[in-house]
Amino acid sequence: MDFSRVELSAEDEAFRTEVREFLAAVVTEDVIRRDRETGDNFDEGVHLALAAAGYLEKEWKTEADGGFSRVQSRIWQLEKRRAEVPWVTWGTTSMVARSVAKFAQPEIRDDVLRGVFDGTVRLCLGYTEPEGGSDVATCKTRAVRDGSAWIINGSKMFTTGAHNCKYVFLITNTDPDAPKHKSLTMFLVPLDLPGIEIQGIRTVDGDRTNIVYYSDVRVDDKYRMGEVNGGWTVVREPLDAEHGAVAAADDGLADVSIMMHQAGFMVEAADNIAALVGSRATQDTSVGYRLGRSIARIEASLSASSIFGRVALAQTMRDVAPDLMDIAGPAAALPIGAEGGLDDRSEYVYRFAPLVGIYGGTLEVFRNMIAQHVLGLGKPAYAPPRQKVS
Ligand SMILES: Cc1cc2nc3c(=O)[nH]c(=O)nc-3n(C[C@H](O)[C@H](O)[C@H](O)COP(=O)(O)OP(=O)(O)OC[C@H]3O[C@@H](n4cnc5c(N)ncnc54)[C@H](O)[C@@H]3O)c2cc1C
């Protein structure tokens, strides 16, 4: 990992100024207030403006293909975070668009990608089901062939952004008798088809996600991605990317692990609370100790890479948020913007932390992955220990 400082060229400095000004004009106070109210983590006006300025396409493409340079790409990511651009639906869209480019049938592929770049087509992930999400391959939503189409029945839990998207990247079971990894077929299902019902769910941190019901939904075969029963090949890549199992670029211009964006809220809260307590941190040893411990843990988690970072960040967020709130006192229990509250997000971080340890794979599952695949400890055994026979 390269930790050296990056010297910005005059061109890069100009680019930073340009995007900073652009984002400041587009991501207004109104956008942020509306986003808190809806929990959407998406704003259509902002999204279309980013698309119209060419930023979505440049972010998605490699430099060789006309996208940002590595330095520009880093500047762009950091500036988007500073400006608090609602991010979740572009995150799922850009991830699924990679599978579209690779696996969608030519009949729909180019149209979908064009729409992704002009902002009109957004894509969401339909993996998790009400009965379980950790093992994505245990999928019960059925797709049954019917001439040149498929009939889909089932339901998907936590399809975040579905109400703002045109298609869902849907994992279905097309052969219940086959071994689970050979029973799956992926589709890019238009969300306006008859038989699809989207119901909103608000999570504890205020985010909006959805449960989506599929009742006799007729989908043309042109929306199938990859081979019939070959869905595992299609879904592996985006799953690995979401899980952070792909190596970060080694040039110092990438996040060292996934979830750095989410960790930014924790960093901001710790900075705010440190400023708020001021000299109490040195006068009151309890305050100093808890603040110092929180900051040390945050720094350590920010330097942990790959899947270790994914675990460290989410666990640290869960552990330090209560300390930060305690240090700040009772006003910290009020949400940001509430009368009498602090101008600080530690209360939000407290509510957000459990979710950060669930979506994209739970902390328990990640700990098992580290144990099994990194430390070589073998598969966990969940059966109770056998009774000794005397
Ligand atoms: C805010 C939010 C947004 C989300 N957005 C999306 C989305 O857009 N699309 C989508 O498809 N999904 C989405 N999810 C779902 C998310 O990916 C799942 O919640 C997650 O994978 C866990 O699945 P589950 O909730 O069904 O829990 P389960 O898989 O039922 O697990 C229940 C418990 O058992 C534990 N467990 C399960 N398996 C193991 C194991 N092998 N070893 C040890 N412990 C285990 C888990 O850690 C957990 O504590 C979202 C979830 C949230 C909270």
UniProtKB/TrEMBL annotation:
InterPro entries associated with the record: Acyl-CoA_Oxase/DH_mid-dom, Acyl-CoA_Oxase/DH_mid-dom_sf, AcylCo_DH-like_C, AcylCoA_DH/ox_N, AcylCoA_DH/ox_N_sf, AcylCoA_DH/oxidase_NM_dom_sf, Mycobact_Acyl-CoA_DH
UniProt GO MF annotations: flavin adenine dinucleotide binding; oxidoreductase activity, acting on the CH-CH group of donors
Superkingdom, taxonomy of origin: Bacteria
Cellular component per GO, a single term: plasma membrane
SUPFAM superfamilies registered for this protein in UniProt: Acyl-CoA dehydrogenase C-terminal domain-like, Acyl-CoA dehydrogenase NM domain-like
Cofactor: FAD
Limits of the Acyl-CoA oxidase/dehydrogenase middle domain: 124-210
Gene3D superfamilies for the chain: Acyl-CoA dehydrogenase/oxidase, N-terminal domain, Butyryl-CoA Dehydrogenase, subunit A, domain 2, Butyryl-CoA Dehydrogenase, subunit A, domain 3
Keyword Protease annotated: no
Family: Belongs to the acyl-CoA dehydrogenase family.
Listed name of the protein: Alkylation response protein AidB-like acyl-CoA dehydrogenase
Catalytic reactions on record: a 2,3-saturated acyl-CoA + A = a 2,3-dehydroacyl-CoA + AH2
Keyword field: FAD, Flavoprotein, Oxidoreductase
A family per Pfam: Acyl-CoA_dh_M
Source organism: Mycolicibacterium fluoranthenivorans
Domain Acyl-CoA dehydrogenase/oxidase N-terminal residue range list: 10-119
